[in-house]
Model the fold of this input.
Amino acid sequence: MPGGDTTARNAGHAFALVVVDELVRHGVTDAVLAPGSRSTPIALALADHPSIRLHVRIDERSAAFLALGLARTTSRPVPVLCTSGTAAAHFHAAVLEADQSRVPLLLLTADRPPELRGVGANQTIDQTGLYGTAVRWSCDVGVPESRPDSVRHWRSLVSRAVAVLTGASGGPAGPVHLNLALREPLTPADDGVGFPHSLAGRAGGSPWTASARIAAPPPPELVQRIAAADRGVVVAGDGLSSADAEALVAFADRAGWPLIAEPHSNARRGPGALRGSDALLANERFVSTHVPELVIVSGRLGLSRALSTWLAATPHVVVDRDGSWWDPTRTSAAVFRCDAETLAAVAVVGDPHWRSEWLAAAGSVTSAIDGVLDETNTLTEPRVARDVAALLPSGATLVVASSMPIRDLDLTMAPREGLRVIANRGVSGIDGFVSTATGVALAHDGPTYALTGDLSLLHDVNGLLGPAHADITFVVVNNDGGGIFSLLPQSGSDDDTTFERLFGTPHGVDLARLAAAYDVGHCHVRTASELATALAAPPRGVRLVEVRTDRRENAALHDRLRAAGAAALA
Done:
């Protein structure tokens, strides 16, 4: 068995060696550790295995989101390990995101053995079922014992965990929790019993129990609906695999249907992809004269109120690889379990004039929006989003924070090839953003960039802690607080002091000094040309590119953009 000394000194040592070896046999290449004492056996086994890249973070929440970013990028299971007690609780936010976004995050929480639970032992809480329904499977793994069948049990356990993590067991991919009760000695020391049994797995490095997910073909009813529709629309949202996104683009092109794609669906490309769809769908005249016979929705939607309102009044079906009930408007005519990539086999003949009318109208809207954004070279929040998406080189990945950055990107990003967009939109939290982006950068072969607001950066500032940084450039829109609330009804209060205290939340943090404290690079850009210069150099280490904006001015600009889009369709 690879990975250092294969002679186990005790049952806990044997357990750790076997678990890590079996994970590697299932394709695991990266693991994340938040250090602690009780997790020592697994930590040592991860560090010693030559096929594992181990990333160490002192903050458990940061460690979990780092693992989330790694798993999002690679689509492979990534274990994150911590000690017992509150350490395990800090994983919970990342678990919730992994649950909703179907990310294969493996939670390894070390725990006290049963005899130390419920008796006041230090650093001991009830960790069984800690994450509730947010995990696909939770197992309180028994204390390792020196038995002839132990290795078989441990390898089978890991195989089952991987099958559940990857969606090969019948349900959606997602997080799995293994609670690991470990007795002392926690180091590879003799315990008077030893472990005299073989640790060997299957021959040739094969997994103990292999599993695979089989693509679900389109059901006959979906095929019939598509065949009967000359004029349709494809809508793509969060949670698509790269194969699904590619297939939706190809299907929309072949059908001659317009494609409305949220940026992080990674389907905003191809000849049918629209920009400016909010203005189209909010325009009563356009909507009334362009009624589709069928709308296919794939992925979770959550950025556009105009899109949700339109779907609620428009015949549509949901297509999802797991049959997930993604119908927040409660108006879908059907929910089909079907991999989008299997739509390639469905015959469809669209109206040749249908898509061109949508593209022409969307072109008018985007020209009007660009006209407003290009009035000055001084950077605004929507222009930063537009320019970042356009300037990044082919092969780059852009990680986008929730709240305003992803919405500005949705409003302004032109369809393009060669850019992968990642966002934590499962639960749409701003927490863990820096760590997620760092995990993406560690797993991505090409250049990695991140677009964030100041609060998302500050919320996870510990993600900037070492010991080793990835190569990533953070473009930080700093409006000294929560800019999105200036665009919501809360901003209508006559009491500006109360609004600022409860929603605006100005922080006054000097990001240059913060960058110096964390030993990362920093520069301040004011104009579009300065931003282009700052992004021209490939990321080397961690750098903050700060753009300072004003929340009130940003709210007024968004009003102008909406008005310009509406006027273009008048």
Summary: The chain has a mean pLDDT of 93. The longest strand covers residues 105-111.
